[in-house]
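Help! Submission page says 'invalid entity' but I think these are all valid:
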Amino acid sequence: MFILFKLELFKLRKKLRAWLGPILVFLLITISFPLTVELASDDLKNVFYSVLWIASLLTVMVSVEGIFLEDYEDGTLENFSVSNDSLFAMVFMKIFIYWLLIGVPISLLGTFFSISMSGQISSINIALPSMLISTYIFINLFSLGNSLSLNKGSVLGALITMPLLFPILILLGKIVLNAGFGFEISNLLLLMLGVLLLIIVCIPFIISFIIRTHLE
Amino acid sequence: MSHSAMLEVKNVSFSINQNRLFQNLSFNLSEGEAIHIKGTNGSGKSSLLRILLGISSASKGDVIWNAAADKIFLGHKNVLKNYLTVADNLHLHGLNATHSEVKSMLQELNLHNKTDLLVGNLSYGQQKKLALVRIFLNTSKVIILDEPCVGLDDQTRVLITSFLSSELDKNKSIIFTSHIPLEIPSSEVVIGRL
């Protein structure tokens, strides 16, 4: 498992545009958004979180577009399914490394922007955990979509996955709403964490099964 | 299955869209043995390899592998990353071979001065040679090759044949398809009409 981690990390590190590009897109959205509205407006504070969620959603969608395609086309997946190595472990690691290189940086950037938008350091308690969890969920779900449409283009995969993301977006909205009213948000974060734990195990297993079907 | 047997193929048949490619195919593979799968284009050689590898399923019959038989496969795709250098690609495949073994094989295949080049900048033949380096430096007991000599010059073909022979000497088993005759001791499995 550690070797897999090292190899996948090595591959992605060498492919700068695969992870640095999406982070720059995220940065561009979060920087350009306040410029397009009145900076002094209170509305900005209210809608900033929505912009963060949508920006992270789009960033993840763009970044995982070809998560399995390259390995499918050059025969890596075929070789993996033949060897004694587990395809499940490979998929799990791939998703984890994408989260590590894309999900974590945009979560940190998003947190930084939420602090600068709200002017309160306490917004770290809302932005950081919710973004860390939600980006991991988004990467898992978009990867599922991409595995389904492995040789049919990524748009189809994104379309298939979109309805699965709506409950997460609703939860994220609830977190901001509750925080705004000063209510407890830890229960909602725990609910999201529960969803993530379920997804972490199930999605790589489903994806590895789908990939095997594609190879056949 | 005896201890030295690596693979047992029993009455395997395969059809695509009601077009029967081969039927009731049976053969065995033992340690240190090679099998050359022969057949015309479209006779199902690659499909048979995919069935043996467990990627595709046979319409009928059984493929039984020895539990200790770990396999490595080189098909039509070279399993190389175009955006990585030759050295990085070898590193990526986590070869168990020593540095000197890798160096001497690259030297024999005339790739030693290309280690810093991106694989995408190599010719098809050079990429194929690099893909074969991955195969020959691997410790898997069974080597499965689909047309390993396509795109290679005569000199390299001779070299590949000698590598394959030395793999057999190491008691490894080889299954390969090839239209180009390879001078290694092997039994033949013919599918379709030649």
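Support: the input was valid. A stray whitespace character was the problem, and the output above is from the cleaned input. The beta strands of chain B are 5-16, 19-30, 34-38, 60-65, 71-74, 142-146, 173-177, 187-190.
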